[in-house]
Each structure stands twice: as C-alpha cells, then as structure tokens.
Amino acid sequence: MKLPxxxxxxxxxxxxxxxxTTKADEGHDMNISKEEIIxxxxxxxxxxxxxxxxxxxxxxxxxxxxxKQGLILVDTKYEFGKRDGKCYLIDEIHTPDSSRYxxxxxxxxxxxxxxxxxxxxxxxxxxxxxxxxxxxxxxxTLPEITDEYAESVSDxxxxxxxxxxxxxxxxxxxDGDIAARIEKNVKGCLAELKRN
Length: 196
Fold this sequence. Notes:
- The protein is of the alpha+beta class.
- The chain contains 6 helices and 7 strands.
C-alpha cells in the first residue's frame, strides 16, 4: 500500500485506509490484501464490497461521535462474519480493546512538536506487559497483575467510557447480579440502536 510522502508519526491520512487481516490458525491475525482475500475465496468480491462500505461508514460514524466528546478516533478493528448467506458485523466496536483514541485538545501542537499524543486505548496495558518481559510468546508466563494495577486499568477504561458517552460511569455493587445487569444493559443498548 502506497502511503503519502512526508507524513509524520500520528498524522491523519487524507482518507482512512483499510488494512484487512484474517484469522490465523494460531497466534495473531494475519495481514492479507483485498485481492488475496478474494482470490482465496475467503470472501467473495460482492461481500468484500459490502464489508468495505460498512467499514468506511462505521469509522466515519465513530469519528463523528468521538469528535463530539473531544476525542479523535485514530484507528480501529472491525470483525465480520457470514451466516446463512448474510454478512454480519461481529464483536465489539470502538472500545479501547479494538480502537485507539487521541485527545483532540493539544493534538495539533503535539503533532507540530513531534511529541507523543495523549491517548486512550489498551496500549498502556501492552506497554506494561512489555516492560515486564511478556510478549505473549510460547512458554512465557503472564506477570502477576496486582490489585493496584488492575484498579488503574479499570480507571483508564472508565475514563474512556466517560469521554465517549459523555456520561458518568457508576460502578455497580460487587455483590449484584452481574448476569442480570449485563442482560439489561445489552437490551437497552439494542433498543437505543434501533431508535437511531
């Protein structure tokens, strides 16, 4: 994929780019081109056109929502599947596990100075793991995650939730019925999506 000349780290592309991957038998996702996906019959040309259209529209909507909250949706991952001949968007979208956000305030100044952007994503967890000599390679043991560190991760995820939704996050009581709470929240979200 040819990228524009002279781009700086963390600079926006003129247009978002799509970099497809597919599930490998083991380990991480495998990079693959649109042409190779179609050639291998992983996805038909018609289905790929649908998925590409959805990807562009979802990303544009995600950027719009983020901008209203003072954030920039930098990049994200969408997962698609097919069932009974129909394409589906699967898995979560625009969460810190699938996306990176920069704070809009200060973005241009940091870019001009070549400084790292202030961001909200799971990248800080990845960096912590690397600092503790864990690269998710065979034979490695996950480092101990202290309660203090787990709480700091929770706080960062709450920060992202509050920025994206514009709402205060209320921690539920630990002794509550978690399954009932999840069901209630998913049903509420689905109802909201149908209204929009």
